[in-house]
Amino acid sequence: MTTASFPAAALFDLDGTLLDSAPDFIATANRMREARGMTVLPLEQLRPVVSKGARAMLAVAFPQMAESERHALVPEFLDVYESLIGQHARLFDGIETMLRTLEQAGTVWGIVTNKPEYLARLILPQLGWEQRCAVLIGGDTLPERKPHPLPLEVAAQRINLAPGACVYVGDDERDILAARAAGMPSIAVLWGYRLDNDDPLAWQADQVCEQPQQLWQAAAWPSVKRASA
């Protein structure tokens, strides 16, 4: 009988997986709406699309605009978000304990996100993660972003492990597609941001977790290869 163990490395999506950043994003969207004389949106209206990125959030905030007009607002959106990043966001319950459990087990962990790297790096010191996070890959770090496997492959390379020795954890289908293409076991988490028609079971991740507390247990993690890169 094989004893369950934590992986050599765990790589995580950021927004919707580790960090509940939706409150920061609704504040960003509403500041932009108010500047244009529009009423504020409730958090519940924006929350489902947070993992889809700035363009998807702008589509909710400014549905009356043409797509090209909303695309032109992306730099403003990112600038406003940068000005208030971390003011309202918080870790999902159980995430800090999960990370400390991994560290105590000897598992290194890092972040692979489609958020621009400079924005993701602003979050690390707010959470005391500068020395704890072994690798950070943003959406603009490399020529490709998720669902392309390159960000996960490079993240594994930077921590001197083969992709198959790592596990990727995310709340969006792009996360699971990227992991599968990289040959990396994956966990789909259900506490993040999803549209009503999203079906995480259809993504065919190696594991599905409903609560971060499940990841405190080695048995919740898929088995991995032990070969180094």
Termini separation comes to: 27 Å
Structural class computed from helices and strand pairing: alpha/beta
Number of E-state strands: 8
The biggest sheet, with number of strands, parallel, antiparallel or mixed sense and barrel status, is:
6 strands, parallel
How many helices? The count is 9
| Poorly predicted regions | none
- Widest sheet: strand order? 5-4-1-6-7-8
State the shape. Answer: globular
What radius of gyration results from the CA coordinates? 18 Å
Query: In percent, how much strand structure appears in the residues?
Result: 5-15%
Question: Brief description of this entry?
Answer:
With 229 residues, the chain is of the alpha/beta class.
Please provide a written account of the structure.
It is a single chain. With 229 residues, this protein is an alpha/beta fold. Helices cover 36% and strands 12% of the residues. The protein has helices spanning 22-35, 43-46, 54-61, 67-72, 74-84, 95-104, 117-127, 150-158, 173-182, and strands at residues 9-12, 19-20, 90-91, 108-112, 136-137, 166-170, 186-189, 207-209. The strands form 2 sheets. It has a 6-stranded parallel sheet, sandwiched between helices. A two-stranded antiparallel ribbon has the order 2-3. α9 (173-182) links the parallel β6 (166-170) and β7 (186-189). It is globular. The model has no long low-confidence stretch (mean pLDDT 95).
